[in-house]
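User: structure tokens for this one?
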Amino acid sequence: ASLGQLEKANDAYGRAIRLEPANGIAHYKYGVNLLKLQRPDQAGKEFRQALTLDPQLADAYYQLGKLAVASGQPQQALADLTKAAELDPHHLEAHYQLGLAYQKLGDRTKATAALKRFEELKTVKADETKLKDPDALLQLADTYFRLNKLEDARQAVTELSRLAEKDPQLR
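Assistant:
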């Protein structure tokens, strides 16, 4: 979306919130749009407001956790990302960001568990082939290596190599 389109969307979300200030989803979507406009502080406020109005919004917890990881605050991210994963156990991105947060904190065991869960969720059966996320496999291989689980690291790298053979963009 162009900057002009994002600004128009921003205006529309602002109007929607003025009309219905207790709408948690509107605050959440406004926050997402603010992220696209690279306004993370404002976005964080909207996500927190969304959760005040609707504490079951897993995506709002996820976005707050992702913002914390990106701003170098992995410890702060854990509570929000864990809550997102509790509310929506199939939330792929929450598990991935949890893995990154634990990795940044040096807890390789929990990082591995979160990244494995992400990879399990990401695996999709399509004509008996598994589609996997190369970034998650790379993170998983790195975490296994740091845990000195070399065979597991080798398996993750092998799977990454298989993906690269099938997808020229990964070569």
